[in-house]
Amino acid sequence: SAAANLCPGAEQKVVFITARVHPGETPSSFVCQGIIEFLVSHHPIAKVLRDHLVFKIAPMLNPDGVYLGNYRCSLMGFDLNRHWANPSPWAHPTLHGVKQLIIDMYNNPKINLEFYIDIHAHSTMMNGFMYGNIFEDEERFQRQAVFPKLLCQNAEDFSYVSSVF
């Protein structure tokens, strides 16, 4: 039987994951692959996650740049991570498509985007860490800090103190 979150008309709680916007950040592909392999595994926690959440994953936001062996830029020489505000469907098609999907989810009352993770890698930082947003609303700020705190408690190679908000 289908999970409750996949039944017609049910509210979907979505976790959206993107990776590899910078072609040279190869560890992001390995992390994303590990997430996908875990989510499709027979692990009981993976099953619980699949039963309660819908995962939307774009594992490579810059396939042209990866193919060309670029370090940071797309085929056309753009650092795609600097074009989220107004992505062009012609010059930044992957960003445009992902942003449109996020806007469509936001405008759909049956979809609740619970969590968004954009996986990168860093040339000098050790361990895992996160960059987060700055919110004036204390509750929103504290809410975003929960996941990195839990990750730090459960993954020895994650550093909460290296995370920046």
UniProtKB/TrEMBL annotation:
Q: Name one GO molecular function term.
A: metallocarboxypeptidase activity
Q: Which Pfam families match?
A: Peptidase_M14 (PF00246)
Names of the cofactor(s): Zn(2+)
Q: Which residues cross the membrane?
A: none
GO terms, biological process: proteolysis
Q: The Peptidase M14 domain covers which part of the protein? A: 1-165
Q: Which Gene3D superfamilies match?
A: Zn peptidases (3.40.630.10)
Keywords attached to this entry: Carboxypeptidase, Hydrolase, Protease
Family per similarity comment: Belongs to the peptidase M14 family.
Name used for this protein in its record: CBPC6 carboxypeptidase
What organism does the record attribute this protein to?
Scytalopus superciliaris
